[in-house]
Structures are given as structure tokens and as C-alpha cells.
Amino acid sequence: MSPEIFIKRTLAATSVQRVEQIQALWSGYGEIVRYQVTTRDQSYSSVILKSIRLDQVMAHPRGWQSELSHQRKLESYRVEAHWYAHWRSQVKEVARTPHCYAVHQTEDLIYLLLEDMDEAGFPSRHTRLEWDSCLPILDWLANFHSRFIGVQSTSEYRLWPRGTYWHLATRPDEWQAMEESELKDSASHIDQTLSQARFQTLLHGDAKVANFCFSELCDQVAAVDFQYIGKGVGVQDVAYFLGSCLDEASLANHLSYLLEYYYAELARCLVAQGESADLASEVCMEWRSLFDMAWADFHRFILGWSPTHAKNTAFSQMVSARALALLRRS
């Protein structure tokens, strides 16, 4: 089925016109395209179609192509389809995400027909932020994490057993490529520390700043790209987000404040949805103790995947060293 026919049938549209490619998917698996549509009620004029091809192995831009990486990528698109079909409705009132009009899946193709967040009032995108511009995304993460606190199983609706795209069990090649080091030797211990934490939630799994759409005043955000959603501790998303948008100086000067802001908002959200203040305090206390572990977990991935990457910073090395020191004392 062509994209135009799928959109026309789904929306009962009288016209469908391709406008622009917003993004080609990583390694050439498909594309994200904006379409102009005409519907009888004229409630919207454009939609976004994410088209994924599942029937071919693509070349990885950094040379990591393998059957394992191919299958991981295919599963990520299936996971995202299941997220929109079965889970997204649980957060629509507290953490803004695109409405999904329809999901179409065959053996070799997935279509996700999504709300256009530009038209919905979130037209701005950023790759870097000033420290105080991080607050709306920390609000979003706190609301999202609080909604799924205590999640037990993700298998019923096919989310990842463990969230994040760098999860150790899905990245054996990158781990093997690491130079011998204490961090490499401690990778499993760090992973177990995170996975065995008492308080688990759902993670966005790829919460970089580029996956958030900002309102015109940049005081509200919506999140997109849920390919790596799964269980974890909330500070895994927080660590990855802050590392994606702040330089080393901003992290050194403002990290403590930003973390306390997130924990305060997380506690507020938990109490607002009916949890006790004591439980909210316990969640924040545990996740505070795990932030350095979460940071080191991603740093482990970077050192195997691309050790010369700009994310391999002195600040990241320092936080990872703190995590390793904690492990040595445990």
C-alpha cells in the first residue's frame, strides 16, 4: 500500500500531498515525511508519516552493521509501533506525545501515521540548550517517569525488557571493542545495579534534546521517537538528556541544581497521582544514588562505539570514575 493511499483511507481524506522529507531514518531504514491533507472536518491540515522498511540490511554509518544490529533496529521499530498502539494513551494527559492516527504493519513494512507537532503548537527544535531551558524537558521526564513507577512487565505489549538504545545486553560488539579498563570490567556490575534497583519505571530510552519539540515560547515540550522505550530507572533518561544538550562548563556549574529540580518535580508528580510522600522520597533517594551509575553506563557505550566521539569528555570521565569508586566501596 502506498503512503498516500494509507493516509487517505485512514483519515477519509479528500486529498493527500507529500510536502517534505523531515528526516531520513538512521542507516536508511526509511523516512519521516510531512503530508498535507484535506479532511471533511478540516481539524488539521498536515500529518507526519514514519515509514520503515524491514526487508533489507542497511549499511551502518559508523561501520557497525551486523545481523545483530539489524535485528535490534528492526525490533526497535516494532517496539515503537506497540508503544503507540498500546501504551501512549496512558500518558497523553501528563506528558505530551504525538497522537497516533493509525499503525500499519506487514512483514516488511511499518507505517506510523502521527500528529504533526509543528501544527500542534510545538514548532521549535534544538540541539543545544542553555541550562535553564532544560527545565521543561525535566518536567516532561518527571511526569513520564512518575506515570509508570513500579511497572512490572513490558512483555505483554512488546516493549524492551530494558530501555535505552545502549543497554549492555544489546551491545556486546561495542563492549568487546572497548579497550581493557576498569569500566569495561565493571560493565555488568553497573548494568545489574541499575536493573536491580527497587523502583523501576518506563524510560523514553533516547531522550536526547533533538527528540523533543518545543512550543514557540520554549516553555512546553512534546517528545517523539519511542524506539527504545523499556524498563529502567529515571535518571538514565535524565543523564542522557543533560549530556546531549549541555557543554562541560554548564554541566559543572548547574548539574546539581538541575538534578534537584528533577527530583522535586518527580516527587510532586508521584504525590499528585496518589502515591505517598514517603514513597516519593524513597524513589528520589534511590535514584539520586544511581545517577553516576546511569552516566557511566552510557559512557561505557561511547567508549566502545566511538571512543573519539565528542561525548567522551573530561566531565563524563569524571562522573564515570565516581561511579566506579562507588562500586569499589560496595
Automatic annotation (TrEMBL):
InterPro entries: CHK_kinase-like, EcKL, Kinase-like_dom_sf. Pfam families: EcKL. One of its GO terms (molecular function) is kinase activity. SMART domains: CHK. It comes from the Bacteria. Coiled coil: none annotated. This is Ecdysteroid kinase.
